[in-house]
Amino acid sequence: MGYEIDKTGAVALGPHRVPVPRTVSAEAQAYLSAPPWGDAPMPEGPIPMWHMRDYVDAQMIALGEQIRASYPVEIEEMTIAGVRCFMVRPGEVPPENEGKVLLNLHGGGFVLGSGSLVEAIPVAHLAKVPVIAVDYRLAPEHPFPAAVEDVVAVYRAMLDYHAPSQIGIFGTSAGGFITAQTIMRLAKDGAPLPALAGVFTAGGDLDDLGDTAQIFTLSGFYGDRVLPSDHEMSEIRAYLTGADRSDPLVSPIRGDLSAFPPTLLVSGTRDAILSATAAFHRALRRADVDAELFVFEAMPHGHWFLMHLPEAREAVDVMVRFFLKHLGIKNG
Question: What is the pTM for the complete model shown?
């Protein structure tokens, strides 16, 4: 069953129609009334995401430049602990923000997204805190735990200049899963943990993405973009290869979460990963972790990339306020 939009803008799922809700902004209604991929030609049937790497990476870099026009920042490419990174600096850093830094892990299904700064740019500008975007190694060429090792290396290097209480780690989609895996790895190694974590449209279990992933896969909602994790073209399979999916370093929800720092989770009701996000939030709360969950009505996967939507700007504002609070900075 494919993704179709009727003349009213409703998504047609076989005989069923999902109308555009009136509870979202006019901009969001217009967005939801059009195919989520715009006018871009779609391939016939699924293809491995990593075969689209050059095209998608170029699109994400271009989107980052568009966002930068509205949220001015300085960007410097650098190498930290042997890992390619981008330092994204706001125009000014108030005295109370000095010494604070955020690490951002981009999305891209573990297999693409290199050079994407679509999250780092608005966060750095609005929080007035430098953001280091870690260009971690990608699967299938570099499967788990390569990406986590890259993030851990950068984080440990940052500890030479910052106290753990001055550092936060956040990411969207694959970057959100890697954020959770990084926290578990640091805890296992006995390393000091960062002040906060942001796990956005992601969760803590790569073996079972939950109910919404099943619904989206079976219904074709948003273009059959969710493949079972054992599918030969699955980016999760490409990322994990032979890793034990029950290992808490792979699926943190399977381990002791009590050491996790305060964690913010964000998703939307049209996000196939919503169940994974919600399940991880509950697991964190059961472990007495200070965890907050925000779910946006009718918003798709990573909707905060769409900065023309009021809902995207609200989501980034939620993130920034959480980051500043847990970095010990008074919110403006």
Answer: 0.93
